[in-house]
Design a protein that fits this description.
The chain is an alpha/beta fold. Helix content is 44%, strand content 14%. The longest helix has 32 residues. Bound molecules: uridine-5'-diphosphate-glucuronic acid.
């Protein structure tokens, strides 16, 4: 099938490459010439495990192209919109200017019967607003939300856990026919496929992220209680997780959630609910956000306590700057935020990360970074683990003890073997653990 993907960020680049890998003929379009050049050369412009291989193998078949010229979408039967919807600079709502620009760019190249399939996460009602413009060309409009996780994006795209097609009832049969052809492999593999109206499909995505954020903030709220009550939130989560109705996943307490999705999506969702006159329905998400942001402060407070009341002039090794492991993404990263706050309090912060240093440097050049974990740890008065990269989880407490000056480690993700660190003479401070 001939497919175009407009927007080649974390979502679009992976989608384009994965669709070509599945046998489709794909053109990915982006306004960023540098990004396009990298992708065309088979080099991902960001870190995503497995993406380089797919870009190279799909590129070698001749089925995958990238371009800065939106006219190159002409001839595709399905056009995926995969542009970003960041938080607006003026409020909590989503900035839809990229979606608008992408649709405007597509319009002159659409033929009757073509399908525009939105993948970007948008406030409910966006598709209805775009419908008139798209349908004036004779093309169809669907919303087909994407649930991929950074760090697992290629696999999540090739083997999604569900497919959601949002369509206007009058167009549903054609939308299903076209998208079933796109996702033929996943459908043959038995992937559940739900056909909904446009508003439901838009809501599925925001509701899913709101639920995940709520689950994380729930366990972080329990961590806050555990901290004063002398309970252990990791054991609590294990015990809760055995109830299949609750489940153990996304119950890891720590420094909280970040990234380019969960934080801005819950804010945009509350803003949209207000617009719809149902602000009270999602007011709890404001609390979810507040709990989440308090965890960053909590880590900073723990650092101040650990250093006897002030971090001023103390060397603090910050392990991790990305919002989660297996990603170079530092958008709204709790880890980077903790590093910046400690620096603001006068600490001599040395931050390290296997993949995130370039992005972190671009955002916060005032911090000192090193790619060498040992260098960050050397003479540190305090060690703070805030992103659970495997190499930090597997640190040997004795070896770290040879490098660091202090003997306190704050485990902002509750991933270290507490007993092993204590046995090696460390003061171990976890999140929501006695
Ligand atoms: C999230 C969703 O999980 C995807 O399903 C969705 O498609 C994506 O947003 C999106 O909207 O595009 P992602 O942002 O890649 O994916 O990250 P997650 O794996 O959801 O993690 C988000 C944050 O929550 C990370 O900072 C992670 O460290 C934190 N987290 C996760 C916790 O603090 N505790 C947990 O138990 C789980």
């Amino acid at each position: 099938m001939k497919i175009s993907v407009v927007g080649c960020g974390y979502l679009g680049a992976v989608h384009a490459a994965a669709m070509a890998q599945l046998g489709h003929e794909v053109v990915g379009v982006d306004v960023d010439a540098d990004k396009v050049e990298h992708l065309a050369a088979g080099k991902p412009p960001f870190y995503e495990p497995g993406l380089a291989d797919v870009l190279t193998s799909a590129g070698a078949t001749g089925r995958l192209r990238f371009s800065t010229d939106v006219a190159d979408v002409a001839g595709a039967a399905v056009h995926f919109l995969a542009v970003g919807t960041p938080q607006s600079t003026t409020g909590l709502g989503a900035d839809l200017s990229h979606v608008d620009a992408a649709v405007d760019g597509l319009l002159p190249h659409l033929r009757p019967g073509d399908l525009v399939a939105g993948k970007s996460t948008v406030p409910v009602g966006t598709a209805a607003d775009l419908g008139g413009r798209v349908r004036a060309t004779g093309a169809l409009l669907a919303w087909n939300p994407e649930f991929l996780r950074e760090g697992h994006a290629v696999d999540d795209t090739i083997r999604p856990d569900r497919l959601v097609y949002g369509a206007d009832p009058a167009e549903a049969d054609d939308v299903v026919r076209l998208l079933d052809e796109v996702y033929a492999d996943a459908i043959a593999a038995g992937t559940p496929r739900l056909v909904t109206n446009l508003a439901t499909a838009e809501l599925v995505k925001t509701a899913a992220n709101a639920f995940l954020a709520t689950k994380i903030s729930f366990i972080n709220a329990m961590a806050e209680i555990a901290e004063v009550a002398g309970a252990d939130v990791t054991q609590l989560a294990d015990a809760l997780g055995h109830d299949a109705r609750i489940g153990r996943r996304f119950l890891d307490a720590g420094v909280g959630f970040g990234g380019g999705c969960l934080p801005k999506d819950i804010r945009a969702f509350t803003a949209r609910a207000e617009e719809l006159g149902r602000g009270e329905s999602l007011r709890f998400l404001t609390e979810v956000d507040a709990i989440n942001l308090r965890r960053r402060e909590r880590v900073v407070d723990m650092a101040v306590d650990a250093l006897g009341g002030s971090v001023f002039g103390k060397k603090v090794a910050v392990l991790g700057v990305t919002f989660k492991p297996e990603s170079d993404d530092v958008r709204d990263s709790p880890a980077l935020d903790v590093a910046v706050r400690l620096k603001g309090l006068g600490a001599e912060v040395v931050a390290t990360d296997p993949q995130g240093i370039d992005n972190a440097t671009a955002r916060h050049p005032q911090l000192l970074y090193t790619r060498q974990t040992d260098e960050a740890l050397r003479h540190a008065d305090l060690v703070v683990l805030v992103t659970e990269w495997r190499e930090y989880r597997e640190l040997d407490p004795d070896a770290v003890g040879q490098l660091a000056r202090g003997r306190t480690i704050i485990d902002g993700r509750n991933v270290l073997d507490r007993d092993a660190w204590r046995a090696a003479g460390w003061r171990y401070v976890g999140m929501g653990r006695p």
